[in-house]
Amino acid sequence: MSVPRVIVKAFQAVEKAEGAGARVRRSIGVPQLRNFSPFLMLDHFTIGDKAGFPDHPHRGQETITYLLSGSVDHEDFAGHKGTIHAGDLQFMTAGRGIVHAEMPGKNEGGSPNVGLQLWVDLPKDLKYCEPRYRDLRAAEIPQVSVDDDRVTIKVISGNSHGVDSVKDLAYTPVWLLDVTMKPGGKLSQTLPKGWNAFVYTLEGEVIFGDGTKVGAFHNVVFRKEGDGIDAIVPDNAAGNARFVIIAGEPHDHPIVQYGPFVVTSPEEVYQAMEDYQGAKNGFERAQGWESEIGKRMLRFR
Can you tell me the distance from the alpha carbon of 77 to that of 148, in angstroms, rounded to the nearest whole number? Predict the structure, then answer.
């Protein structure tokens, strides 16, 4: 018999200002949940067309950006550029060093651009790999429906009910499932043993295996022990529930983070700052580089 995982904690993510005019609900990288290996940060962001994240560096981690509505442009110092739209994802590996910008699109009616960005720690032996990008379009994401179509799962990364995702999206093994449940729906989702796992709720109310009812914008953290996550939405619920299930294989190395630099020792932090400021050891192309999309911010000042 399947044994569901037990909840360790559940807390609401409070919206705060971040970047240049953006609003975020951060639920990893806060006092309630910090360095939940391999996860470093989770932001549920809202950015209007006059806000954004202009030129900034990274080293030692991967970022996964899942756009829920609107569009976001990206550009880096290696010449990579593109746009993701609602339902699309971008998997960015910073590796030894990247400088890039992420700026929102302009939507009809001025509606904001909303999404999730997850920071994932790289394995120690890949901290200094070459940077890379992988876009995953909404049309590439397989779906599966269960419980008489009361539950629909977008299998972004991993496996659900026999349906596999696209492969080789990130270096660190991570599962990411987007779940929508109608009133009366029931879900039993298996997860890899020994992986850390959490749920972030986007809308509605959902009851997990131990009877805990959780509303929107909560991070729900589960114990490693158990076979997976059980969830139900009561028959009398006011509407659908939507949440993401995220699980990852934890690393066994120290995490030393200074802003966008995620390494394994204080010495590596100092080296990262020196490399970025001196445009060397992976940051050579940062010398004098400015993104075109980042210049949008100048027009709003």
Answer: 48
Handedness of CA 99, 13, 226, 147 (dihedral sign): negative
102 is annotated as contributing to ligand binding: yes
> Is 218 known to sit in a ligand binding site?
no
CA–CA gap between residue 174 and residue 213 (Å, rounded): 26
Phi, psi (degrees; rounded to nearest 5) at 63: -120, 140
Q: Are 61 and 94 in contact (CB under 8 A)?
A: yes
> Which domains occur in the chain, in start order?
7-248 (2.60.120.10)
Q: Taking a C-beta distance cutoff of 8 angstroms, is the pair 113, 67 a contact?
A: yes
Structure confidence by residue, pLDDT tens digits, 250-274:
999 999 999 999 999 999 999 999 9
Query: What length does the chain have?
Result: 301
pTM of the model: 0.95
As a whole number of angstroms, the distance between CA 287 and CA 209 comes to 53
Residue 293, SS3 per DSSP = helix
Residues 143-165 pLDDT 10s: 999 999 999 999 999 999 999 99
CA distance readout (Å), 111 to 49, 71, 95, 252: 9, 11, 34, 42
